[in-house]
Design brief:
The chain is α/β, with parallel strands linked by helices. The protein has helices spanning 3-12, 36-40, 51-77, 86-98, 145-159, 163-166, 183-189, 241-255, 297-315, 335-347, 364-367, 390-393, 399-419, 423-438; strands spanning 102-105, 114-117, 125-131, 168-174, 198-200, 203-205, 216-225, 264-271, 282-291, 318-328, 373-374, 377-379. It has 2 domains: 31-214 and 332-438, Aminopeptidase, CATH 3.40.630.10; 216-328, Alpha-Beta Plaits.
Length: 439
C-alpha cells in the first residue's frame, strides 16, 4: 500500500471516531420477547443443548473441512492488502452461495465486505461470526487471517442447520481492512452491530487464550513543515523539518518514563526529505499511541502533541497531524462468555496460556462496545514465532494450521451452542455487557 493511498484514506476518516466511547447502543441489551419461532419450540431454552446438536456440529465440521482447508491455502497463496481483498471476498462468498447462504455485499460501503445469511432470518436472537482476510505488506498472511477467516467460514457453514433449535440467526460478516484501516470501526459507526446479541471470531497466535487483552490505539501522521535551502551553501536560510522529527522522537522517548506502564508509543519516518544536499522542508512520521484503556488515550494524545509542539518550536518549523485510522478501543471482557470459553477449552483439551500480556490492538474492540464480543486465540506455531513475522507466516499452511481450522470452528460453534441453549447464560452475558457500558 503506497503512502499516498494511506494519506488519501486518512483524509476520509471522520475525527469524530475519537468519541467511540460515546457511540454506544441506544438502549440496554435485554432478553428479546419470544417470537413465533420461540412459541413453536418445545421445552425451555435451557433444555435445548443436546448431544444431538453437538454431534451434528462435529459431523458438519468434518463435512465442510476439506473445502475450507483448500480455501485457507488459496488465501495464503494469494495475499491481499487491506481494502484490496477482492479474490478473498469472491472466494468466500462463492462458497457461501454454493451452500445456500444469501449474500449482502459492500456492508458499511466497504468494497470487499459481505454478510452471509442462511434461511429466513427471523429468529429471536442474532449472532455475528466475524471473518478477517487481509494480509500484510511483504509478509503475506503473517497475522494468520487466512486461517482465521477460514475458521469463521467453517463455523458458519456448520452452524447453519442449528438456527431453528437455538432460535438464533447466525450470520457471517466479512470484515476487511483490519491491518490498515480498522474497517470494523466503519461498521460500528454505521450501526451494523446494533442488533446483534453476540459477536465472535478466533484469531491465531503463538499461545492459546480465551480472552485477548487488546490495547486501545490511536494512529496519526505528524507532518513538520520547514523551509528548504542549500545544505552547504546557505543552510542558515532553511528550517529543517527532519530535525523536528528527530526531536519529536527524542521527546516521546523521554515521555515514556512518565506515562502509565501499559502505554506504548512507537512510529516510523515516512518522509525524511528529498536529497541530502537540501535542507528538508517537509518531514512526516506515522505514530501509534496505545493504552490498556481507551479513556487514557486523550491524555496521551495531548502529551504527544506537546512533544510535536516543542520540537517545532526548537527547530522554527510548524506542524500538523491527521488521523490515519479510526480509534481502536480495548476489548471489553464479558466474564460470563469468557468463562464458557474456558469450559470449552478444557473440554477440548486446549491448554490456556494466559500470562496477562497484551495481544496487540484490533478494531474488534469497538464491536465489544455494541454487543458481547469474543476473540479467543489458538497457537499454530511450533517455535512460538510471534504474529507479524515471517516465522508466523510460514505456519499458515501447515498441518497444525489445518487442524486449528477445525478446532477453532468447534470452539466458535460450541460457544454459540452453549450460550444460546441457556436462558441463564444469555441473561448473565447481557447483564455483564450492560454493567460495563452503562454503570
Amino acid at each position: 500500500m503506497k503512502m499516498s493511498q494511506i494519506n488519501n484514506k486518512s483524509q476520509q476518516i471522520n475525527d469524530k471516531s475519537q468519541q467511540i466511547l460515546l457511540d454506544r447502543p441506544s438502549g440496554k441489551l435485554s432478553d428479546r420477547p419470544s417470537g413465533k419461532l420461540s412459541d413453536r419450540l418445545s421445552g425451555k431454552l435451557s433444555d435445548r443443548l443436546s448431544d444431538n446438536l453437538l454431534d451434528r456440529l462435529s459431523g458438519r465440521l468434518q463435512e465442510f473441512l476439506p473445502e475450507i482447508i483448500a480455501l485457507n491455502d488459496y488465501l495464503a497463496n494469494h495475499p491481499e492488502l487491506s481494502g484490496e481483498e477482492y479474490l478473498a471476498c469472491k472466494a468466500m462468498t462463492n462458497i457461501l452461495k454454493t451452500h445456500g447462504f444469501q449474500i449482502e455485499e459492500k456492508i458499511a460501503n466497504l468494497e470487499t465486505s459481505f454478510r452471509g445469511i442462511y434461511g429466513a432470518n427471523n429468529h429471536t436472537y442474532k449472532v455475528a461470526i466475524l471473518a478477517e482476510y487481509d494480509a500484510l505488506k511483504d509478509l503475506g498472511h503473517g497475522c494468520g487471517h487466512c486461517v482465521s477467516g477460514s475458521i469463521s467460514m467453517l463455523a458458519a457453514l456448520a452452524l447453519a442447520q442449528c438456527q431453528e433449535e437455538l432460535d438464533t440467526d447466525i450470520h457471517i460478516i466479512g470484515t476487511p481492512g483490519e491491518e490498515l484501516y480498522a474497517s470494523k470501526c466503519d461498521m460500528v459507526n454505521l450501526g451494523v452491530f446494533d442488533d446483534y446479541d453476540l459477536a465472535i471470531m478466533l484469531h491465531l497466535n503463538n499461545k492459546n487464550l480465551i480472552h485477548s487483552k487488546l490495547y486501545a490505539i490511536d494512529t496519526f501522521q505528524y507532518n513538520f513543515h520547514g523551509k528548504a535551502a542549500h545544505a552547504a551553501a546557505a543552510p542558515w536560510e532553511g528550517a529543517n523539518a527532519l530535525n523536528a522529527v528527530q526531536l519529536f522522537f527524542h521527546a516521546m522517548d523521554m515521555l515514556r518514563q512518565h506515562v502509565l506502564p501499559d502505554t506504548k508509543l512507537h512510529g516510523i519516518i515516512v518522509n525524511g526529505g528529498s536529497a541530502a544536499n537540501i535542507v528538508p522542508d517537509e518531514a512526516s512520521v506515522e505514530i501509534n499511541i496505545r493504552s490498556g484503556e481507551t479513556s487514557y488515550l486523550d491524555e496521551l494524545n495531548r502529551l504527544v502533541d506537546d512533544c510535536a509542539r516543542g520540537a517545532a518550536i526548537a527547530t522554527q518549523t510548524t506542524w500538523d497531524k491527521s488521523r490515519t485510522s479510526d480509534r481502536n478501543c480495548e476489548l471489553l471482557k464479558n466474564e460470563t462468555g469468557v468463562q464458557v470459553l474456558g469450559e470449552i477449552y478444557r473440554e477440548l483439551g486446549i491448554q490456556v496460556e494466559d500470562d496477562g500480556s497484551f495481544f496487540g490492538s484490533s478494531d474488534i474492540g469497538n464491536v465489544s462496545y455494541k454487543c458481547p464480543t469474543f476473540h479467543p486465540t489458538l497457537n499454530i506455531t511450533e517455535d512460538r514465532s510471534p504474529i507479524h513475522t515471517q516465522g508466523f507466516a510460514n505456519c499458515v499452511k501447515t498441518k497444525k494450521a489445518h487442524q486449528a481450522i477445525e478446532l477453532g470452528a468447534k470452539v466458535i460453534g460450541m460457544q454459540i451452542l452453549k450460550i444460546f441453549s441457556s436462558d441463564e447464560l444469555i441473561k448473565k452475558m447481557k447483564e455483564d455487557f450492560n454493567s460495563m457500558i452503562y454503570e
